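User: Predict the complex.
Assistant: Input components as received:
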Amino acid sequence: MTTEEKREEILKKLRDAVIQYDEDVAKEAAQEALDAGLDANDAIFNGLVNGMEEVGRLFEAQEYFVPELLMCADALYAGLDILKPHVKKLDLGIKGSVVIGTVEGDVHDIGKNIVKMMFDVAGFDVYDLGKDVPLDRFVEEQMKTDSDLVCLSAMMTTTMVGMKKVIDSIKARNPNVKIMIGGAPVSQDIAEKWGADGYSPDANNALKDAINMISSLKKLKEEAEEKKGS
Amino acid sequence: MDDNLMTSRDRVLKLFAGEAIDRLPCFSGMGNVTTEGLRKFNYKFAEVHSDAKMMADSAASTYKLFGFECAVVPFDLCVEAEALGCEINVYSHAEDILYPTIKTKLINNAEEMDINLPSNIPSRGRIPMMREVIGLLKNDVGSDVAVGAHVLGPFTLAGQIMELNSLLKSSFKKPDKVARLLDLLADAIILIAKEYESAGADYITVREMGATSDVLSPRVFKSLILPHLKKIFAELSINNILHICGKTNDIALFMVESGARAISVDQKNDVAETRKKIGPDVLLFGNYDPYNILVSGTTDQVMATVRECINNGVNAVWPGCDIWPTVPAENFHAMMDEVKRYRRE
């Protein structure tokens, strides 16, 4: 175990590495965390994810834009790659598996990748179908993996309409699946009309939604630990 | 004033020339093919991108069916990238509407950015076919409506030929290399736009949606994107428009500074605010929501949105993006009728 002071120092280094999109420092800090005996989960959530939350805020405030976001994500992954093998599987009582991809006709996957990253961090099983995915593939993959969440992304007005078919098709076979849609042209209105359970209009909100999911996951984790403790 | 006194073509050309017109035109610089139009000829959407006659028929049908005041080609965003050497996917298997996309990128990472342009761009890919399409449109509807074409802006074109993640990060880490690439692409865009002009197009829209403030900061727009847009518009003598979708209020003045004859924005732009910012004399086209209102709105919403665009200060009622082809006929007619009927408050 390590001192609280040392822990705080390492967590701050992880957090700042993500915010300042410094991959090298992120790797270094992740290794320091392991060497100092920090819990890998602690380092991920209170270091890397904490930094990404600040990045989300900077993005919202329009201080950061997509290039910065991508570089911050690289730094987060650099740290995550080192820490993840040391994470003990969490038993949170939720299954947490997600099928994600951009719909056929859309070759833009940046928003999707950022959302995927947050699921990766949160320890979800992520089935990433990539970009330009034929609509039937979403349905097949959900059935095959029995995932509880399907995330569909479309970047342009000219590609988003395909999402409606996927939603109908998945819901017809398995009404319990949650479906989240996202991308620049999507609106709350469209999500409701098409029967999606959630939506994010742009990368910014997708990130926020993903962070919200992780925040609630964090809460669950804390509650689980409290129960264990008492 | 009676609509018969002025053709749609006159109205649009006079608007560009700054001359008096009887009412605002309703037209577009982007795709507006409809499934109604395709049905009339029994064409499949996947087929119309690579056949001159089919593309021209489809493009003219929106005017013929609904009185939309233009004929615009192409329908996809891959023509320039294809001319530079990319392979495209037209989704020929698809029964639904799927727009062509780029299959293979020319540049996969920052190390591969030092490319040269092919020497014979005007004869590559679909450029010769596009000339033919424009000629066919001129013969068919060219005396009634203005014929438009669109090209991508340099950054958006870079996003078509280069892996996008890498381009975006490079715009931050290696701005000099990106600037060199954009300068090169600006040359290609100028060449292609001039081909369209000499084929008879009346106006050209430069679509630089990749550089919207949803993606890039206004600061990077000004330092990295704007110089190349300026270069393009300085070279074009044809009537021209700069279109950027998404958040554009913070870059509206830069858009004007590009030297474009008109600027075009979508429904995410607060047009009343933009009008105040750019003053009364700059041509501002927009910002009609081409899906949420035109396709899935009620006819009342369709008409109210026409009035809203006009009252907010646009010079043309103009969809903020390509019109989604499944637009219901009654909505299209309602939009056109309201433009003809309504006068600014």
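Chain B touches chain A through 32 residues (CB under 8 Å).
Let me know if you want any component modeled separately.
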